[in-house]
Specification:
Blueprint lengths: L1 H7 L4 E5 L7 H16 L3 E5 L3 H7 L2 E6 L2 E7 L5 H8 L3
Parallel strand pairs: 1-2
Antiparallel strand pairs: 3-4
Length: 91
């Protein structure tokens, strides 16, 4: 697995694009655990996901983009589905 090779290297920034798409609940839990472990080690983890529930539950901050432009960075405490969709969709 390529991820195992990356973890063996001295990498400080991980960018995960849709890390849990198409996997079962058990594997999803394992991936979340790995992401938390990386963050606790002082690594930076960027998760790109279209799953609002996922980003709202695992991310400290959510950067919302629309038409390729950054609209706003929302802290987890303020990241309701309504707010995130309101920012992401055109008015």
């Amino acid at each position: 697995m390529i991820l195992a090779r990356w973890l063996a290297e001295e990498i400080d920034l991980f960018v995960m694009d849709e890390p849990t798409r198409g996997i079962d609940v058990g594997a999803r839990r394992d991936i979340y655990s790995l992401l938390y472990d990386l963050a606790e080690q002082g690594k930076s983890v960027v998760v790109i996901s279209s799953d609002l529930a996922e980003v709202s539950s695992i991310c400290d901050r959510i950067a919302v983009m629309r038409d390729g432009e950054l609209v706003e960075v929302v802290p987890r405490e303020s990241a309701t589905p309504e707010r995130l969709l309101g920012l992401a969709l055109p008015a």
